[in-house]
Structure formats: structure tokens, C-alpha cells
Amino acid sequence: MDSHFGLMNVWQQGDFVTKAVAVLLIGMSLASWIVILIKAIDVIKYKRLAKQSQDFWHSEDFATALAKLGKDDSNPFRVLALEGREAAAHHRNTKAHLHDALDVSDWITRALRNGIDEFTARLQTGLAVLASVGSTAPFIGLFGTVWGIYHALMSIGSAGQATIDKVAGPIGEALIMTALGLAVAIPAVLGYNALVRGNKFVLTKLNSFAHDLHAYFVTGARVQSGGDATVVPLKKV
Questions:
Q1: 56 and 65 Cβ atoms separated by less than 8 Å
Q2: Mean pLDDT of 92-114
Q3: Alpha helix stretches (DSSP H) within the chain
Q4: Which phi and psi angles does 222 have, rounded to 5°?
């Protein structure tokens, strides 16, 4: 058999549709791997920040606790702490607004929930790409295979030779498109599942931290009439 199986041979012998399918699958693979790597780095970072947030509550006051969270504005635990503090101060010092109908607990809950929702949306960015690649790549590869087999059979029929050595090569090369589709889809699906589990862990820690913040700001923070927040110790000493 003169022809050899391989993606390069498929590319050389394929028509425009076959090449377009191959390029599309390769592009989907690159996109999924980029998303997997970037989001995996983010999950590792947020897991590390979640562990560091445990030190927040082992502080004498809020200022010291906040300093332990660092100055990184992308730290969701620091962002929640700041938003909770600002919500408590704003509610207790501002008069004649509609939010005065809400007690401080509801107001702080709303502020913390908004912060968590914004972070959740940012955390899940890119997962739609993996879901789309994982669900569509096998069918795109299958389409490339069907198209390749169709043209292979048409070529064999026009040549008038249907021996096994003439059929096996073109059809075998067309089946490579199905394998390529699976090779693209499987990492995307596995990456998606791994990232979802990682995101769930981070969000669980963030929600727990938000609950603790809510209890602290409702029962522990006091805002003086001058506008400066006097914060009681985070722990008994």
C-alpha cells in the first residue's frame, strides 16, 4: 500500500472542507488548553489564598487582619472584607435613604452576596469554552470522517478499482478525523470537570468566610458618630 496513514497525509489529500475541519479542531484544542492552563493557575492561586485567609481571624483587630490578606486587589477574601466593612459603615452613617428600611444584617448580606456573585462570574469565565469544545469536537471530527469517506468512495468509484488496498488507505485516513475530534474533546471534558471541582472548593471557602464576616460586622463592628469605625477585637485576649 503506497499511501500511509497520518494527519499530514489527510491534509495533503483532503479538500477544502477536510482542511477546514482539521484547522477548526486544532484551533479548538489550542483554545481549550489555553483555558485549562490559565484557569488551573487561577484555581491554585485562590486555593492558596483560601488557606491564608484562615489567619485573618487570628488577629487582634480588623486592621491587622486585613493586612494579613495582603494588598492584592484580586484576592476575593480581601475584597469581601473591604466590602463588608464599607457596607456596615455606610449603613450606619447614612440617613434618609431607601436602604434604611433594611436592617444592617440584610444590608451587609446584600453587599457580601454581590461580591461573591461577581467573583463567581469571574471564576467561571472560560468554562463555557471547555463545555462547548467537549460537546461538539467529537461530532465535528465525525463530520470530517463522513465527508472524507464520501469523497474516498467517490474517487474509488470513478477509478473503477474497489480492491481492499485501494479502499483501506483513504477510508483509514478519513477515520483519523474522528480520532482527532476525540483527542480534542477528552482533555476539554477532563479539564472542565477538574476546574469545576476546584472552583467549588474555592467558592465553599469564600462563602464560609463571608458568613464569618457577616457575623463579625453585625455583632462586632461599631461606627462612631464621627465617621471612624471603631472595631472590637476579632478574638478574646
A1: yes
A2: 72
A3: 7-13, 16-52, 62-68, 76-93, 104-123, 127-159, 164-219
A4: -130, 130
To 10 degrees, what angle do helices 164-219 and 104-123 make? 160
Q: Which residue has the higher pLDDT, 15 or 21?
A: 21
CA distance 119 to 82: 14
Full-model pTM: 0.77
Q: Dihedral sign, CA of 179, 185, 189, 191? A: positive
Judged by DSSP in three states, 222 sits in strand
> Mind listing the pLDDT tens digit for each residue in 109-143?
888 999 999 999 999 999 999 999 999 999 999 98
Separation CA 66–CA 69 (nearest Å): 5
Instruction: Catalogue the long-range contacts made by 197-201 (C-beta closer than 8 Å, 24 or more residues apart).
Output: 198/40, 198/43, 198/47, 199/43, 199/123, 199/124, 199/127, 201/47, 201/50
pLDDT confidence band for 151 (50 / 70 / 90)? confident
Measured between alpha carbons, how far is 179 from 166 in angstroms, rounded to an integer?
21
The partner residues of 231 in beta bridges, in order of sequence, read: 221
Task: Please check the confidence at residue 2 and state whether its pLDDT lies above 50.
Answer: no
Residues 6+ apart with CB under 8 A from 71: 78
